[in-house]
Design a protein that fits this description.
Lyase, Ornithine Decarboxylase, Chain A, domain 1; alpha/beta; TIM Barrel; eight-stranded parallel beta sheet; 420 residues; binds pyridoxal-5'-phosphate; 20 strands; single chain; elongated; 2 domains
Length: 420
């Protein structure tokens, strides 16, 4: 695995200084991600403080940048892996197999066998056939039954694809697992990603309580509750309300004395706010109506939906705009309806339309915050356009505390400039 290169931020310097220094060097051909590892560390500490009973297993699919994963290993987090590839990656980065849950309910035979060879025993299921496959490939595994419990206010509902019905199917599946002699150790759910309803966790945890009782009736002693993901991660979206609901539900349905271990699989929460994208305007068209009045300014950026913008989360907040040519001081206050396009030849590659922006020029910088979740793992090189290059920053204090590894640079080093 390639060495991770960390850029150390000395005391008194911030990620904003990094952004200023990138911008000061002039427009770039390819987009850039500034990854702030201190933000990941802050998120972890906040989680621990707000949800002391819930052990986080970070969902690797959300952003698999090695610096993020390595930091989370150093912080002692667990990992939700969805494939053989993700498990392999985490083991190479030093994660202990006991800190991994294979949280995919439709696994390949080969990946189940691989998990067994590596000592990854905790895995989810939601159907009979999966149980039969697990019986054949990893009969000693510790199984977690995934039920369906959907938030009415989630951008991505996962229940359509995963999770059994808790009323009818779940008891039947527990019985079937018992008849196969398999060890079921817990229940999981995922209320949906991009969820805005913190209250939904209460009902889901209550629903799991009933299944714990049913399982006990048929001879299982369940010890694990996995509350999945679905927590917000943008810088202006705290998880306080989520923590309050979850802590209350745990106190009520799984009090400390029940000795039930509680884990979660947060993705967005850990990484959304850790990444800032610096993109540039590379082309522009001015659209006029038949009377000659301007109706739209169309800008073509060097990043888009086939790059690191999230398909599911249309961009609503305007980016920070910084003139590419610092000599041209613009005192413009007028705003115009504007469309931001990604660079590819596909017309679905549209970041936003109707956004009111000052008039932009070629080479201007657009700085987008909260770009850490799912964008990079879903990014492609469609049309030959580069994915953003990631530059990793961490404060010296955090670096020394975490003892990550030795490949470091200090200060703000030059980034490659584009030839315009
Ligand atoms: C099984 C599972 N766990 C966790 C997550 C992470 O969800 P989120 O990023 O909303 O926290 C996902 C996302 O799709 C998932 O499928």
């Amino acid at each position: 695995m390639r060495k991770i290169r960390y850029n150390l931020l000395e005391d008194g310097t911030s990620v904003q200084d990094v952004i200023d220094s990138v911008v000061a060097r002039g427009p770039l051909d390819d987009p850039i991600h500034i990854l702030d590892l201190d933000d990941v560390v802050r998120k972890h500490r906040n989680w621990r403080q707000q949800l002391p009973r819930v052990d986080p297993f970070y969902a690797v699919k959300c952003n698999d940048d090695p610096a993020i994963l390595r930091t989370l290993v150093a912080l002692g987090a667990g990992f939700d892996c969805a494939s053989k590839g993700e498990i392999e990656r985490m083991l190479k980065l030093g994660a202990d197999p006991s800190r991994i849950i294979f949280a995919h309910t439709a696994k390949s035979m080969d990946s189940i066998a691989y998990a067994k060879r590596c000592g990854v025993d905790l895995m989810t299921f939601d159907g009979e056939v999966e149980l039969e496959k697990i019986k054949q490939m990893h009969a000693d595994s510790s199984l977690v039954l995934r039920i369906r419990y959907d938030s009415p206010d989630a951008q991505i509902s996962l229940g359509k694809k995963f999770g059994c019905d808790p009323e009818h199917e779940a008891p039947q599946l527990l019985g079937y697992a018992k008849s196969l002699g398999l060890s079921v150790v817990g229940i999981s759910f995922h209320i949906g990603s991009g969820n805005n309803d913190s209250g939904c966790f209460y009902g889901a945890i209550k629903c799991v309580r009933k299944l714990f009782e049913y399982a006990s009736d048929i001879g299982y002693d369940l010890r694990l509750l996995d509350i999945g993901g679905g927590f917000p991660g943008e810088h202006d979206k705290p998880i306080d309300a989520y923590a309050k609901t979850i802590n209350l539900a745990l106190q009520r349905f799984f009090p400390m004395k029940s000795n039930v271990r509680v884990i979660a699989e947060p993705g967005r929460y850990y990484v959304s706010s850790a990444v800032t994208l610096i993109a540039n305007v590379q082309s522009k068209r001015i659209i006029r109506n038949s009377q000659g009045s301007i109706t739209d300014f169309m800008y073509y950026l060097n990043d888009g939906l086939f790059g690191s913008f999230d398909w599911y989360f249309p961009r609503q907040n305007p980016p920070v705009i910084i003139p590419g040519n610092r000599q041209l001081v613009r005192s413009q206050t007028e705003r115009f309806p504007s469309t931001l396009w990604g660079p590819t030849c596909d017309s679905t590659d549209i970041i936003c339309s109707g956004m009111m922006l000052e008039e932009l020029q070629i080479g201007d910088f657009l700085v987008f915050d909260d770009m850490g979740a799912y964008g990079m793992t879903l990014a492609t090189n469609f049309n030959g356009f580069a994915k953003p290059r990631v530059f990793v920053y961490i404060s010296r204090t955090a670096w020394e505390q975490l003892k990550l590894d030795k490949c470091v640079r200090t200060g703000l080093k030059p980034l490659k400039r584009c030839v315009q």
